[in-house]
Amino acid sequence: MKEKLSKLKNQVKSNLAKAKSLDEVEQVRTKYIGRKGVINEIIKTIPSLPPEQRSTIGKLANELKQEISRWIGETRKKIVAEESVPDAKETFDLSLPGKHKPYGHEHPITQTINEIKEIFSKLGFDVEYGPEVELEYYNFDALNIPADHPSREDFDTFYLLARSAGGDNQLLLRSQTSTVQIRVMKEKKPPIRMIAPGKVFRPDTVDARHASMFHQIEGLMVDEGVSFSDLKYVLTLFAKSYFGQNIKMRFRPSFFPFTEPSAEVDISCSICKGKGCSVCAYSGWVEVLGAGMVDPNVFEAVDYDTEKYTGFAFGLGVERLAMLRYGVDDIRLFLENDMRFLSQF
Ligand code: DAH
User: Fold this and answer.
1) pTM confidence score
2) For 206-263, how does the pLDDT look when each residue is reduced to its tens digit (9 = 90+)?
3) Does the beta carbon of 144 sit less than 6 angstroms from any atom of ligand 1?
4) Tally of helices (H runs) and strands (E runs) in the chain
5) How many CB atoms lie within 10 A of CB 226?
6) Ligand 1 site, residue 259, Cβ cutoff 6 A
7) Which residues does the record give as Mg(2+) binding sites (predicted)?
8) Whose CA is nearest to atom 8 of ligand 1?
9) Are 218 and 120 within 8 A, CB to CB?
10) Which residues contact 118 (CB under 8 A, 6 or more apart)?
11) Residue pair 178/200 in contact by the 8 Å Cβ criterion
């Protein structure tokens, strides 16, 4: 009987060593130490053994039962631990090179706007925003462009409703950021120093220098005693900060309904250094902004005291500035989302 028990012991050991799953371990358990298992069958035969063997065999059988139960516990633990370790193939390999994701960056026009914001904020200008879908009143009337003014015709395309529908204050895509001057002055009293960046829309024929949507930055300063020399000072300071100390600037007399006197400001063409190229239309100069002293009619539209306050305003074309700065000869490149172009900035 002793021999039989020690044989059993070896059998259980080798069965457990072969077991690959918890199910197989369970089969071993039922077979050997289950209620009707081999060990229990042996224990049942003990009363029929010679009396002197009974207690030794009983003891051995019980010890074996406990031992098997311990081995089963250990085997189960081992299987569970092995199952939770992934296959060698799936294992994370720290030595593999990572997947490269290129960094994105801001669009060159956004970069230009941010740079200009920074320059003006050093001069104490706040940043304001206005809606791109605008009422005629803000785009025209309040800016001293009455309904019959010829300059309205240049912007007569981007109305949101048919001309015949609706009243006389219709919605349109704004043609200029000058609208924000009116919105800000209606809300705040002087002193005002602000710039307003944003998109504008024009029914222009698209070519190397014109797009139907582009960006402007409006500027406005209103206070007691603001003069044209303040305007010249601020714009010269801006041009030198943005283009460098050697940039040349010229003010040409011009006309805008909302400023009097008005000027157009040109920058010496940095692409051809003034020799003449397609960007400057072979003139050596590029117009980058319009400016002037705020017309008293505009102040009246916003209920400012025209005897007390004066102010200057300007509107600059962001794409034009970026083209000059980076030597880009076609405005359409900024709008095409071609990564070969954009990734250079
Ligand atoms: N709004 C004008 C345009 O889009 C630019 C401009 C000219 C803005 C003179 C101004 C200004 O504030 O004073 O052509």
Assistant:
1) 0.71
2) 988 899 999 999 999 999 999 999 999 999 999 999 999 988 999 999 999 999 999 9
3) no
4) 11, 9
5) 20
6) yes
7) 260
8) 315
9) no
10) none
11) no
